[in-house]
Amino acid sequence: MSRIRFKRFSGLLLTAAIVLSAGCAAQPSATSTDAAPAADAASATDAAPAATDQKAQTDVRVQLSFLMQSLDAPLIVAIEKGYFAEEGLNVSYERGFGNADTISKLGTGNFDLAFSDMYNALEFNEKNPGNKVIAVAATQNKAPFSIVTFKENGINTPQDLAGKKLGAPAGDGPRKLFPLFAQEVGLDPSSVEWTTMEPKLRESFLLQNQVDAVSGFSTSVLPSLLKAGKTMDDINVFYYTDNGLDFYGNVILANVAFAEANPDAVRGFVKAYLRGMQDVLRDPSAGLDAVIAADQSKLMDRAAEKIRLEEALTRMYITPEVEKLGLGAVDPERLEKTIEQTAKGFGLQSSPTIADIYTDEYLPAAAERQVPPASERTALN
C-alpha cells in the first residue's frame, strides 16, 4: 500500500534538523495520577537494555482511553521488556476518562500520544483546527461498537429495539452513530427513547431494568455484566461491524505538532508498541498477567479482564485484513467509507479525507509487524 500522508497543518515542511534531533535511548517509566493503576517504574527500568544508559532520551507522555485494562497489555509488555527504551523513549502514561476527554487533552498538548478512536477525533479536529490529532497506527481492526441487551427483554434482533428505552452517556460514540446503525438494519431511529447517564452507571441502569438496552463498547459492557452474574446465554450483542458499519476500533493518536517535531519518537513508539502486541498475541495469558501485576491499586479483577481481552482477541485484533496488511495498517477503501459514514452520523460540516485523520508514515516495515503465525499463538487462560 502506498504511503498515506497527513496534511501538514502548520504549513511547514519538516527539516532535516528536526529529524536528526529526535530522541535517542532512555530508561522507560510509567506513571499515573488520580490513583489510577500504573506499571511499576522500577521494574520497567530494570528491563531496559544496558546499552541505552549513555544515550539521550525523549520523553513521551501517553494517555489511555480509560482506566488501565487488559487491552493495554501491549503497552505494559513493551515497557517491561524494554522495547521503548531500545527506541530511545522514556514512556509515561496516565489513565483516561473516555475517548472524547482523551482526544481533547491530546489535542491541547497535555499528552503527546493517546489511545482513542479516529471517529471522535474527526469531530474534534473539525472543532479545533489549531490543535489537530492524527492516527498513526490502528491497534483494533474492528470497533467494539455495539448495542447490548438481555434476552429476557424480548430484544432478539435490532428491529426489536423499536419502542424500547436505550441508555448511554451523552458523548458515547455508538450512541452518536445509532441513526446510521438504525438505517442499516431498517429501524426508525426516532422509535427509541434515550436515557443519559454517567459512563460508570451504564451497566447498572441495564441490570436494574431502568433501560432495555445500552450502546457502548462490548469490551466495556460485557465484562461488567458478566461480573454481575449474567452469562453470555443471557445477553444479546448487536455489533455495528456486523450490521453495515465496518468501523475500526481504537488507534494510536498523535498530537500533530508533536509528531511533526518528533517523527523518530513517534516511529519508535509505534514500533515498540507493535512488538508488544505481537508478544501478547503469542501469549495473551502472559500479557494479561503483566497488566494485573502493573495494577498498583490491586483492585483489578482478573476474570473480568480475561473476558475483555478474549473479546478483543476474538473480534478486534486478528482479522483477515490484519493477516494481509499487518498490524497497524488500514484498508484505504474501508477507512474512506467509514469516514463518510462518520461525517454523516456526527453531522460534520466538512468532508474529511483519509489524510485528515490517518497516516501510515510512522509504521515500521511490513515484515516487522506481521501477525505471529497460529502455530506460535497460545490460548488465553
Mean pLDDT: 88
Give a count of the beta strands, DSSP E runs of length 2 or more: 10
Q: Strand order within the widest sheet?
A: 2-1-3-10-4
Low-pLDDT runs of 5+ residues are 5-52
Please, what is the oligomeric state? Answer: single chain
> How many structural domains does the protein architecture include?
2
Task: Give a written overview of the molecule.
With 381 residues, the chain is of the alpha/beta class. It contains 16 helices and ten strands. The protein has a five-stranded mixed sheet, sandwiched between helices. It has a five-stranded mixed sheet with strand order 7-6-8-5-9. It is globular, with a radius of gyration of 20 Å.
Offer a few descriptive terms.
D-Maltodextrin-Binding Protein, domain 2, 381 residues, single chain, globular, five-stranded mixed beta sheet, 2 domains, 16 helices, alpha/beta
Give a concise summary:
By secondary structure, the chain is α/β, with parallel strands linked by helices.
What is the topological layout?
Elements: H1 16-21, H2 41-46, E1 58-63, H3 73-80, H4 83-86, E2 89-94, H5 99-107, E3 113-116, H6 118-127, E4 133-138, E5 145-150, E6 165-168, H7 173-176, H8 178-185, E7 193-196, H9 202-207, E8 213-217, H10 218-227, E9 235-239, E10 251-255, H11 256-261, H12 263-282, H13 284-294, H14 302-317, H15 320-325, H16 332-345
Helix pairs in contact: 3-12, 3-13, 5-6, 10-14, 12-13, 13-14
